[in-house]
Structures are given as C-alpha cells and as structure tokens.
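Most newcomers find our protein records easier to grasp once they have seen one. To make this concrete, we reproduce a full record directly below:

…
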Amino acid sequence: MADVLSILIGLMFTCTGCLLLFGSSISADVDDQLTQDFKRFITVMPLREMFPWRITSMNYRTMAGVLQLSSALLLLLTSGVLSTIANMVLMVVMGVAMYSHWAVGDEINKLVPALICFSLLMIRLFLHLRHMPKDKKD
C-alpha cells in the first residue's frame, strides 16, 4: 500500500512542482494566479529575516517548485532513507503552505489542498515506518 501511495504522491508533486517551475509555459492564467499568490506569501514567509539575502516572490516560488519536484522524483525512484527524507521535506513544504494561506487570511478552501497533501504524506510515512524491518538485538 505504501508503494502505491508513494507513486500517487510522487506523480502529484511532480505535476505541482512542474507547474510552479514552468507555469508560464503551461497556462498564463494559472501562472498569473501563482505569481499573485507568491507575492502575498513572501510577506509572511517563515524565517525570512534569517536569510542574509533578499528573497523575492519568484525565488520563493522556484524554491518551492524545486523542493517539490526533486522530492517527488526521490519518492518515485528510491526507497528507504531517501524516500523518507523526501517525504519529510514535502511535509515541511506543505506545512509552510498551510501556514502561508492561513497567515495571509485566505479562505479555508485555499488551505484544504495543502492539508490533504500533508495528511497523505503523514499516512505514507506511517505506512513506510510501520513496514520497516526491525533491528534484531543479540
């Protein structure tokens, strides 16, 4: 079951990562909406002041897309520790997405997709960790 869930989640985040990275080539309307959203999200980005350089909304969007696409590919192509790390990275990305929607005052319907993705990632992590071989103690 965890393998099927890994494939579905991997394909979903591959699509969303590509949309964030190559949105202008896919649909102008979607790209405009994403651009507007990330301009609002950058104002509430967690730990923004911690970075020594200025992060623009486009950099933030690119960073989210790269994290989603690379983690999705790791989920699809690897197993074990790498897929667990990719799962946790995606959970953090979805946590930041939920926080961003909440912090800018979006309605609940904008927050629900990130919440569903986060929940699927939690289920996948639980199933994966549950089926890991246990170390035998001598």
